[in-house]
Write a structure and sequence with these properties.
Layout: E1 2-5, H1 7-19, H2 26-44, E2 52-57, H3 61-75, E3 79-84, H4 93-105, E4 111-115, H5 120-131, E5 135-139, H6 153-165, E6 170-174, E7 203-207, E8 210-211, H7 219-223, E9 225-229, H8 235-239, E10 246-248, H9 251-257, E11 272-276, H10 283-295, E12 300-306, H11 310-313, E13 321-325, H12 336-342, E14 348-351, H13 359-371, E15 376-378, H14 380-385, H15 390-393, E16 400-402, H16 406-413, H17 417-422, H18 424-435, E17 438-441, E18 446-449, E19 456-459, H19 471-483, H20 491-513, H21 520-536
Parallel strand pairs: 1-8, 2-3, 2-5, 3-4, 5-6, 6-7, 7-9, 10-19, 11-12, 11-14, 12-13, 14-15, 15-16, 16-17
Antiparallel strand pairs: 1-10, 17-18, 18-19
Helix pairs in contact: 2-3, 2-4, 3-4, 5-6, 9-20, 10-19, 10-21, 12-13, 19-20, 19-21, 20-21
The chain binds ligand NPW, adenosine-5'-diphosphate and potassium ion.
EC number: 4.2.1.136, 5.1.99.6
Domain YjeF C-terminal: 250-534
Protein name: Bifunctional NAD(P)H-hydrate repair enzyme
């Protein structure tokens, strides 16, 4: 699991490293940062020897990193053109010291330093320099960026993007591309066509830990390949938990919690999953949720649909035990007693996909939520029907996982869609604080928040091929099945595992089909392959090692 920090958390980390108990000299961290960029980017640019490199250095410490980069590039045989956007006095002592060293190395042949002062001639020179170089280093702004890019930075960034679009110039961003908000992934110019956009980098070398804006869209589109270098930060600062923590899920996190099946297990061991959902228009949603659960290892699966929907479901998924409930084409309050009674034998209950938005169904839902005791997964129409019902839900929140996509989340929470998109981690945390549920905010990327710790877990996987009706229904069934999987320590852990497996299965489909036309059912069918891959990468526990090894 990788930490995902905000700019403020980075500042605190820097301060603690330099001026707190660790007392690392500031120039050392800057030195390590600059050196990290040169080392990590070397392969991406096919070696530095003989390259012409423009280094754009802003007036903060991001610019200071640029001075270090220039010195190391000279040692590796590149010619550097350093544009200094600050004045000597404006720099921090460490950046000034690195600039001084670089000035000592300046010459006409290999190391030109230009104190950039905008004029027609200067713009023209910069454009020509960019056009004739192979690499540009964006050390203009890092975590200190806020608002919208101002002149002259805005024009420089436009120029970099324009020249890079011709395909001859590689763009390497230092820490984060200029114009990307480190906290939210929002970018300069979003929603304002007149304002300058951010730098679009081929690669970003980021320092210490990941910044949230590198993973959240649209910032992620600007970052290219991201490499994180610890730059020698003390380990407790890199791995310690934060109050406002956010973390990126990795494969190793999931293989750690997905305990292998015990060899003497039986169907009862793997959970009795119930899916109570669907309506006559949307029988497919119920079937997709069922498939998601079965492919994720549900021991037994009960599917309960409205009576008139049942004929469309019976026999479609042979493994599911299907029955119609009530008499109509949607659930009503009168159906609740039967489900509540049955739930005594269920380990988990999922509701919502294709359920319809009838007022009757809202009454049904609330009855079932109030009178069952197993974990509940609520998705789609169940969430639409529960919009604004915070006071009703919160007391049951400890056993509820909600899985809205952004529009459902907006309806449910009452937050405007634009505000959610501006800072989805903050919106998700705020919601969980109030509603007390485990939240899976689906999208690109998906964010999971724990009601116990309020930590957010961001899943980087998945692809645009998954933007297809029914993909969320599969996830609903998966979340339910994983919630009762052996070894899951909390609903949040199960939700993280399900989301990660779902996206990894989507990525397998993407490898086969590309971005168009693979089906939600195919994603479900790829889940066992993902789980097998995880199991293969894990050393066998002692009891499962072969007793006899053939020679
Ligand atoms: N500290 C450390 O130990 C280490 C830090 N490291 C490095 O430091 C970086 C953070 O440095 P930082 O805090 O100096 O901020 P930085 O990103 O350079 O920008 C600040 C300048 O930007 C300006 N500015 C802001 N918005 C603007 C806009 N819209 N348009 C135009 N200008 C704008 C702002 O001006 P202001 O708005 O305040 O007038 C201010 O002058 C970090 O990303 C990493 O690379 C590494 O060396 C490792 C060790
Ligand atoms: N561009 C994308 N990148 C990654 N994941 C995506 C992308 N588009 C969709 N997904 C995933 O696909 C699923 C879509 O769910 P949802 O919108 O609820 O679909 P439906 O309601 O039609 O079943 C979510 O898990 C979402 O994270
Ligand atoms: K930068």
């Amino acid at each position: 699991m990788q930490k995902l920090n905000t700019a403020a958390q980075m500042r605190l980390m820097d301060q603690t490293a330099m001026h707190g108990q660790y007392a690392i000299a500031p120039a050392v961290l800057m030195e390590n940062a600059g050196h990290a960029v040169v080392t990590h980017a070397e392969t991406a640019v096919h070696g530095w020897q003989g390259k012409d490199v423009v280094i754009l250095c802003g007036k903060g410490n991001n610019g200071g990193d640029g001075f270090v980069i220039a010195r190391h590039l000279l040692n590796r045989g590149a010619r550097v053109y350093v544009y200094v956007l600050g004045t000597v006095e404006s720099y921090s002592p460490e950046a000034r010291a690195h600039l001084h060293t670089l000035q000592e190395l300046a010459d006409e042949e290999t190391c030109l330093i230009d104190y950039f002062a905008p004029s027609d001639k200067a713009w023209d020179r910069l454009y020509r320099r960019l056009s004739s170089s192979q690499v540009v280093i964006d050390a203009i702004l890092g975590t200190g960026f806020h608002g919208t890019l101002r002149m002259p930075v805005s024009r420089i960034v436009n120029m970099v993007n324009e020249v890079a679009a011709s395909g001859t110039l590689r763009v390497i961003a230092v820490d984060i591309p200029t114009g990307v908000n480190a906290d939210t992934g929002d970018v300069s110019g979003s929603g304002d066509e007149e304002a300058a956009g951010p730098v679009f980098a081929d690669m970003t070398v980021t320092f210490g830990v990941w910044k949230r804006g590198l993973l959240l869209y649209p910032g992620r589109t600007c970052s290219g390949v991201v490499v994180c270098d610890d730059i020698g930060m003390p380990r407790p600062l890199l791995t310690g938990r934060e109050d406002d923590g956010a973390y990126m899920l990795e494969e190793s996190d999931i293989s750690e919690v997905l305990a292998p099946r015990s060899p003497d297990s039986h169907k009862g061991t793997h959970g009795t999953v119930a899916i109570v959902t669907g309506s006559s228009d949307m029988a497919g949603a119920a079937l997709m949720a069922a498939r998601g659960a079965l492919r994720s290892g549900a021991g037994k699966l009960f599917l309960r649909v409205p009576a008139r929907t049942a004929p469309y479901c019976i026999g479609r998924q042979a493994e599911a035990m299907v029955r119609g409930v009530g008499t109509g084409d949607h659930f009503t309050a009168a159906d609740a007693a039967e489900i509540i009674e049955e739930s005594r034998n269920w380990s988990v209950l999922a509701m919502g996909p294709g359920m319809g938005k009838q007022e009757d169904t809202r009454m049904f839902l609330k009855e079932v939520i109030a009178h069952t005791s197993c974990p509940l997964v609520l998705d789609a129409d169940a969430l639409n029907l529960l919009a604004g019902e915070r006071d009703f839900i919160a007391p049951y929140g400890g056993r509820i996982i909600m899985t809205p996509h952004l529009a459902e989340f907006s309806r449910l929470s009452g937050l405007p869609l634009a505000d959610i998109k501006k800072d989805c981690i903050a919106a998700a945390k705020q919601f969980v604080r109030e509603w007390q549920v485990t939240l899976v905010l689906k999208g690109a990327p998906t964010v999971i928040v724990s009601p116990r710790t309020l930590h957010a877990y961001v899943n980087p996987g998945g692809n645009a091929g998954m933007a297809c009706g029914g993909m969320g229904d599969i996830l609903t069934g998966m979340v339910a099945a994983l919630a009762v999987h052996d070894g899951m320590t909390s609903l949040t852990t199960a939700a993280c595992a399900a989301v990660w497996l779902h996206s990894a299965a989507g990525d397998i489909c993407h490898d086969t089909y590309g971005s168009y036309g693979f089906l939600p059912m195919e994603v479900a069918d790829a889940v066992p392959r993902v789980i097998t891959r995880l199991e293969d990468s894990r050393p066998l526990p002692v009891l499962q090692r072969p007793l006899v090894t053939e020679a």
